[in-house]
Amino acid sequence: VSQAAYIFLGPPGSGKGTLSKLCVETFGWLQLSTGNLCRKHIAEQTDIGKQIDFIIKSGKLIDDQLITDMVDCWLEEVVKTGSTLILDGFPRTVDQAQRFIQMTNRKYPELRVQIIRLLISDDAAIDRVVSRFVCSNKACQAVFSAKSDSGLVAKRDLTCDYCGSPLCRRSDDTEIVMRNRLQVYRKHEQDMLNCLLDAQTPIKEFQAEVPIEDMFNSFINAVMR
Ligand SMILES: [Zn+2]
């Protein structure tokens, strides 16, 4: 079987991050985090890192070309390992999706790219996000919930199950901010999906309004079949 790369697509609150974390921990899959990659390139003062540093310092946004270059760099390393890959939070725009498709078609034609779409209503996503806590450790970023039926309640109050760091609330995890984030997300989601589907990228859809364990199991059953 050829190497798979799963693009996790879903709004904030759909459980993408937690699902990625479960896959990484259970199977040792490799997860793309553009945030971590940016920090790594800056710390190592690579060509990309210097450009990112300059852009951030001048208060601009990192453009889609640079982000795709960074992902390309990452793929060069991880494709060699043969490990299953997870793309969470990338591509984020139609432009990134187009660049990603062109790049993988040209450089990694063997890579089996597939969309994993997580379905959740706005109200359910908001309900989740306003009750979530995240690990304060940047390298961990585990997500927990105050809701008892979520399957994500921390074993010890306000302490991360994985690394023991304190849990905190993200300042933008409020209903008002979430309504706005969802509106922005929904606006881009369909265009990005169309772009990926036009390129014949296979898609599997999962109901995300279920406990995370259930979503994990249906995802694993569907992709490992
Ligand atoms: Zn942690």
Task: Summarize this structure as a short list of keywords or feature phrases.
three-stranded antiparallel sheet, globular, 8 helices, 225 residues, five-stranded parallel sheet, binds zinc ion, 8 strands, alpha/beta
Report the span from N to C terminus: 12 Å
Structural class estimated from helices and strands: alpha/beta
Helix content: 40-55%
**H/E series, N to C?**
EHEHHHEHEHEEEHEH
Main sheet record: 5 strands, parallel
How much beta, percentage-wise?
Answer: 15-25%
Q: How confident is the prediction overall: mean pLDDT? A: 93
The total count of helices amounts to 8
Globally, the shape reads globular
- The count of DSSP E runs of length 2 or more, i.e. the number of strands, is 8
Radius of gyration: 18 Å
Ligand kinds: zinc ion
Tell me the quaternary state: single chain
Descriptive notes:
The protein has 225 residues and is α/β, with parallel strands linked by helices. It is 48% helix and 16% strand. It has eight helices and eight strands, in the order E-H-E-H-H-H-E-H-E-H-E-E-E-H-E-H. A five-stranded parallel sheet has the order 2-3-1-4-8, sandwiched between helices. A three-stranded antiparallel sheet has the order 6-5-7. A hairpin with a 7-residue loop joins strand 5 (132-135) and strand 6 (143-145). Helix 2 (34-44) crosses helix 3. The relative contact order is 0.18. The model has no long low-confidence stretch (mean pLDDT 93). The structure holds zinc ion. Zinc ion is lined by residues 135, 137, 140, 142, 160, 162-163, 165.
